[in-house]
Amino acid sequence: MNRDNSFFEFDAENTISSTSKKPRWLVLSVEDNDTFQQSLVNALSRMIVQGHTMEVLTASSAKEARLILEKRPDINLILLDVVMESDDAGLRLVDYIRSTLNNPIIRIILLTGQPGVAPNRDVMEQYDIDDYWSKTDLGEEHLFNVMNGNLKTWRRMNELKSARQGLERVVTASQAISRQNDLPHFSQTVLEEIDRIIGITDGGIMSLKMTESLDLEKGSAVLAATGQYQPYVGQSITILENEILLKRIKKTIQQKQHMFVGRYSLLYFSFKQPNPVYYLIVVKSATALTESDIHLLKVFGENIYNGFANIALTEYLNELAFKHWQTGIYNRNWFCQQLVADEYWVEQAQIVLISIDRFSDITVTFGEKFAIQLLKTVHDELSQVEGIQAIAIISRDAFAILLDKSHVLSASRFDEILGKKNQIQRREHKIIAKAVSAQLDPSLNRSPERLLGQMESHLYRLRAVSSSHFHHVSLDNEAMFSKHLEMLNDFNIGLTKNEIHAYLQPKVDMVSRRLIGFEALARWFKSDGEMVPPDIFIPIAEASGLVEQLDKAILLQCCAAIKQLQAAGISVPISFNVSCHELLLSDFSSTILSLLEAEAISPHQVDMEITETLAMIDYEQVSATLRKLIALGMDVSIDNFGTGFSSLSHVTELAATTLKIDKSFVQYLGERESSEHVVDMIIRVATRFGLKVIAEGVETTLQRDKLIELGCTLGQGYFYARPMPIDEAVVWALKHQ
């Protein structure tokens, strides 16, 4: 590093006395060269930028800098040595600032003592670095210009941040009064602000709203008022016994602009969208306003105009943020807000989650319009529950309701409400649903999302393992949270101890009974012999970020199984499942291909399975990744096809070779006509777009025969074999070769 400390010698124009009390910028210098550090501190301490002096903090390492940043979040700018205790210490500190501290506005300038060596553009963009200079280039004028430019930028960004925070507070305040009339509340606040700005010690202020006609006799109302005008709130302005003021109001409306006459100031605002509406604020002061007061009112008038516009915008955004867009029913965001209210917890209200059975099947079979009407019908029926305080759609097929403590929803009442048949689009339909209820208690954790997550977990288990329609559950947060952490720890240990095994389930040609491949399914057997179901540990893996390790472990076992099968003379592909997170990684395909190459496995020897829901997540990016793998010979299957109604509208966009019919449709073949229609439709879709189709969950001769009759000849399920260890799968394959 260059140790010349003569870079920073400033003339008197840019220096001040050390005793000056001017406002200060806060700068952090991170530098392990003491000589350069001191030289830089001396230079900055004499510098004035935009009327501010510099307060300089110093650190000799990235570690020391972290401690300072944690204590001083008000730092404006960092001068950072690139190389310190390690080659990448500087970049890791930048990442810590941007990601962990979540500070996007602090200006970061990298310095190096090696002229000509600079990070490439990708590094600058990736780490959000603002500037980069060689220490030898930072002469007197140059350092000043660098500091001046970056601190100007910081100031603009900070102003934007402050403005954004102010808007967030306005939105939050608007949400808090969503049950009130927002416009009068806002108007009252405006009047109080005007009073604060110009000091109305006598007289008063009022806010008027007029309709499109601009006729005071027909369409004017006092929204809010102070002082002598308070009695007129909610009434027509025409009842004022002040002809002079009424004439001035009419003149202001005719001229369509502000008017300042003597003790009266009239501020005019008009809006054309979405419906024409006009507002007038009348200020009566004790004395005529000064030019300065008028100027302040005009400036504040711009804010008032924006405020009125924001009221309309806030109401519109609330409609989007707090309403289910297809039905207009309140949504999960709104319901979470209701859960924050103390009254429900103190009064120990009852919360109930209701899930409509087989909603995806209903949507596919009868159409989206039918499904939307079904949701509205369920909402109308649930709204009849005695003591209901709030109701909302919290997911695609589930509702949540809050009941006051004096009304408890019982299982019999639940069945009575939703058990009867309803007419939906001229079709008689019986709603089948399951529900879980719980009692809110002041001692419980009050995080709305965590509470709903707990309830949804209970509801999911009820749907999976119980025939009962209604369960009351306990919300013991800590016990559940501890159990989850214990399971997560066990799973992490299980991965390191190779407790997770790939079990293979055969895929067969149902006509010839010929083996066409296997699907690898993860199975977890703890060291004590306990078997943990996949529907428990896979969500834990996904939520904790361990799913990549899980999928890699299964894929490696797939590669070993392929080699073992080949040694026995059996050459069939094995499919493996991929998580959402992995598929959206930019290096996903190269990672998979590198692993296969290292294991000497060709892409055509493995198939990839992704869920239909995953395929719909940014399907353009997903498809680009999958097409690359398909081009190399790998088959891609869309698993659980038909369970998400969006798939049919996007099927032409999907990069896939195979559709897998979900077992929920297969299990009722021969029993329900609707299942047969869905399966037939999926087969037709696959045929239309040149895709193979495989049925999952084939368990009976009737199901097999129905599938073959409909044109699906490939399948897997207990009718042929359960998932089995690799050694058993090889034996099975030899028997059924």
**CATH topology label of the largest domain:** TIM Barrel
Number of strands: 26
Number of helices: 26
Major β-sheet strand ordering:
18-19-21-22-23-24-25-26
Largest sheet: 8 strands, mixed, barrel
| The top level CATH class name of the largest domain | Alpha Beta
User: How far from one another are the termini?
Assistant: 71 Å
Provide the β-strand percentage band.
15-25%
Cα gyration radius (Å): 34 Å
What is the residue-mean pLDDT, rounded to a whole number? 80
CATH level 4 superfamily of the largest domain: EAL domain
Going by helix content, strand content and strand pairing, the class is alpha/beta
Task: List the domain count as a whole number.
Answer: 4
Helix content: 40-55%
Overall, the morphology is: globular
Low-confidence stretches: 1-21, 166-181
Secondary-structure arrangement, i.e. CATH architecture of the largest domain? Alpha-Beta Barrel
InterPro entries: CheY-like_superfamily, Cyclic-di-GMP_PDE-like, DUF3369, EAL_dom, EAL_sf, GGDEF_dom, Rev_trsase/Diguanyl_cyclase, Sig_transdc_resp-reg_receiver
Domain EAL: 484-737
Keywords: Phosphoprotein
GO biological process, one term: phosphorelay signal transduction system
Sum this structure up briefly.
Residues 26-150 form the Response regulatory domain. This protein is of the alpha/beta class.
Blueprint (SSEs and pairs):
Blueprint (H helix, E strand, L loop, with lengths): L23 E7 L3 H12 L7 E7 L2 H10 L5 E5 L7 H12 L6 E6 L8 H6 L4 E4 L5 H37 L5 H17 L5 E7 L9 E6 L17 H13 L3 E3 L2 E8 L5 E8 L6 H32 L9 H9 L1 H5 L3 E7 L2 H8 L1 H15 L5 E8 L2 E6 L7 H8 L2 E4 L2 E4 L2 E7 L8 H18 L4 E3 L4 H20 L3 E10 L5 E11 L5 E2 L1 H11 L2 H21 L6 E4 L2 H4 L4 H11 L7 E6 H5 L2 H13 L3 E7 L5 H4 L7 E4 L1 H4 L6 H16 L3 E4 L5 H10 L3 E2 L10 H10 L2
Helix pairs in contact: 2-3, 6-8, 11-12, 15-16
